[in-house]
Amino acid sequence: MITDPKTPYPWINYLGNEDFFSLTSNTGGGYTFYKDAKFRRLTRYRYNNVPVDDGGKYFYIKDGDTVWSPGWKPVKTPLDHYECRHGMSYTRIKGLKNEVEAEVLQFIPLGFWGEIQKVKLTNHGSEKKSLKLFSLIEWCLWNAEDDMTNFQRNFSTGEVEIKDSVIYHKTEFKERRNHYAFYSVNQPIQGYDTDRETFIGLYNGFDSPDAVAAGHPSNSVAHGWSPIASHYLEIDLEPDESRELVFMLGYVEVEESEKWESKAVINKRPALSMIEKFNSVEKVDKAFTELGEYWDDLLDTLSIDSGDDRLDRMVNIWNQYQCMVTFNMSRSASFFESGIGRGMGFRDSNQDLIGFVHQIPDRARERIVDIASTQFEDGSCYHQYQPLTKKGNSAIGGDFNDDPLWLILSTTAYIKETGDFSLLDEMVPFDNDVSRAKSHFEHLKASFYHVVNNLGPHALPLIGRADWNDCLNLNCFSTDPNESFQTTGNKKGETAESLMIAGLFVVYGKEYVKLCRQIGKEKEGDEAEGHVEQMVQAIKDHGWDGDWYLRAYDYYGKKIGSDENEEGKIFIESQGWCSMAEIGKEEGMVEKALDSVKEHLDCEYGIVLNSPAFSKYYIEYGEISTYPAGYKENGGIFCHNNPWIMIGETMIGRGDRAYEYYTKIAPSFLEEISDLHKVEPYVYCQMIAGKEAFKPGEAKNSWLSGTASWNFYAITQYILGVQPDYEGLRIDPCIPKDWDGFKMTRKFRGATYKIEVQNPSHVSKGVRETWVNGEKMSSNLVPLLEKGKQHRVKIIMG
Ligand code: GLC
Ligand code: GLC
Fold first, then answer.
1. Nearby residues of 440 by Cβ (< 8 Å), 6 or more positions away
2. How many angstroms is it from 470 CA to the middle of ligand 1?
3. 570 near 548, Cβ under 8 Å?
4. Cα-to-centroid distance, 468 and ligand 1 (Å)
5. Lower Cβ count inside 10 Å, N or C end of the chain?
6. Per residue in 430-480, pLDDT tens?
């Protein structure tokens, strides 16, 4: 619940779960789209606007001479009370002014292509009130990019229709579009406007529309320029009386032959039947309850009781919720991603999966197949694909040599969660060409061997255009400011090697070997194991700097991330992956490397990516050295990779330190420093400014980031230590010593595991006894138990 509308930055939420989505800020800003934020944008939004977050779904209330908005914006009349509740796929904003209360509940019913806004007005005063209510949305002319750039055309194309209380947006409907949008209210209206200039006035902002000032609309009909939809309602309220109205912003697709009712008049039947579905408060409330049940059901799959409210809130609610939002949006639409830029990342989407596979395994399976279908026979793949076509994006291309390996992570995570090995036999195309389909297992094999077949001079993996760190561009020597670091690879990529991919390969190579043995491919497993062992050796021989793992070898074969370097002496990624891979653990390398992380990379707000940050441009390193020191990939706290260190710490049993790192970046632990942190204290962000930045601790790019899934994975599977495995749940916590234990309820393969972990001797790691339904087990692998039942699992650490 937000109690001051002037948050340090707009704090947003997402509505919608399948095809239809809205972004909505705590003051009613934001926009709506169907499936694709670029190609099917319903309402307009101006990013990086002045003031920030101007434009959204607004209501204006005129009460005598006072004009105000329930969410404070856009009018910004000080309110007597304000609150905004962001919940699971819904937002409820309440404002109170001069004894009138206005509550706006926004949500998208399940399986529905429309957003509901239930508006409740209450007169708390002792006198009768005569209110004037104006709604406002601004249509986008569908293609959000074209809408913001192509004014010579777009100012002439806008078209609307108005019938009863429904305003229809039908730009381009007569030609190649079979879709329109509408905005309705379930009451007779006393007027409307659909032309922006008429409603607002050419020289006004959203805060002071002419129509509202005048106290009446003009019933304008938009012809070109900027079509909007604004309803006007006169509402009288006796003392203590309430009125509830249902507004709907909907999207309709019609068959070619069904487009028209009569000449130039669109077929409104589909819209009217959508409106009818929710034309009463009872129907709306029922759909809202169903949405709540849907979320309860998703979140019930995994929940904990740790005794710390902040941890419980992250694990049980917000982290899982963010993982689902990231599944829906990938990196496309947030208040930092414009919805017109990026497709779905190959590596991003595979990694995101580990955050939601337990909630929606079927959709996870579909996602894995979509991703794998963009791979090539040699294991390489397109770096991104487009959600509408599901085809690889050739403008960006491939050759990011970490990409293929993430497919092993997502696939094994899926099988461990579900036990569904049939995925491995599914025929999956290469490069979306069905005639080139092979079994999904062959895709994994191609991923594994893509590394084996692309080794460099030290027998370490060639980095290609970049590895996970998109900005470590070792084969791109760029002097042209108009060139993208992401797509320029003007050097032959035959020397630059990555220790991050090396560690990654050992971790997922071992997974691959385990999977092969699990399905009886012993020979394949043995062979692969040989390659993994060679990689371990290569890292020990050429990847160790004395106190930490090197980061890479550059194009000239020189070390990166070495004490020898003047800047960028140590990097987080290779410390994370080589620790997770337990390279040289017996020789103390893991412990040493992680101690070096503590010493050189850790700071008050999290672990920075590299240190010292680069202070000048290194042409042979690429984009990483273009960022000012302390930001983004140049010494920022790039939250996505902090969990790799947390997991690394659990490999050597240091639960206190793993948890300390967890709490440093977990949003619920940062609430008190919101003024500095700036972005939402309920979701992870991509980056927090690092120790060398101008303002350490200030965060950016909230919501859409691999950070959500990796932190969820680290806390649930490595710190709390409940890991799905092929044959059951393995329970191996690594927690702070002073914890007495914790409880987790985990639904797994149809059964419910009520897990209680006790820590009587106050250790960080080690399981002394495992009890299942009162029976002592021989190991901490809890077997698959009878479906449909609850089972008691007791773990005694020590
Ligand atoms: C961005 C990208 C991700 C990349 C990371 C580090 O978050 O989405 O693919 O790994 O930056 O550069
Ligand atoms: C920039 C960003 C990086 C992102 C990449 C692709 O390089 O710094 O985080 O992954 O763009 O969008």
1. 368, 369, 372, 411, 423, 424, 425, 426, 427, 428
2. 6
3. yes
4. 6
5. N
6. 999 999 999 999 999 999 999 999 999 999 999 999 999 999 999 999 999
